[in-house]
Amino acid sequence: MTLSGPDTGDQWCELLIHTATPEVGKQWTDTGEIHEECDLKGRAEGETRTVLGHPALTRILRQHIEDEQLQPGDLPFRGETGGILAGSVIRRAWRSARKAVLPLHVFESPTGKRVYDNRHTCLTEWLNDGIPPARVAEWAGNGVPVLLATYARCGGGQLADPKRRLEAAGDLPELPEVD
Question: Which of 151, 107, 109 is nearest to 126 (CA)?
């Protein structure tokens, strides 16, 4: 994780993802552990991925690191025994946060039901805001074809700009008079 100093102009952070530790269940791992550490999906062995973090996330992480007195190499969020935070804890916290901030009808809907749903919302917003698909795919850890196949209908928020560009290019030429 790379965090800029609190007084620098650019407050975006970068999170370096080097492995995945999905919660798969003890019966599905060779070690008998709930989580299985593996390389990133669709990437070569040992390859990493950088994820951009919004300035608001930078401020939250900076404060969390200070409060918890975290050192380089520490897990930013640890479970009771100091290891990986249990998925059940994350799901309970997510449910509580949704309930606290969403109107009841939205809370009871499928909107944002799973933490993973935020990924879809984020990628959709980035594409609709006109961020180039290659950049969005890189940040998301997808290839451009997968991203565009999944989010093919995104881009509605960009329609006004292409219309302006097409209008600026000029009208069709006038047809010559035919006698």
Answer: 151
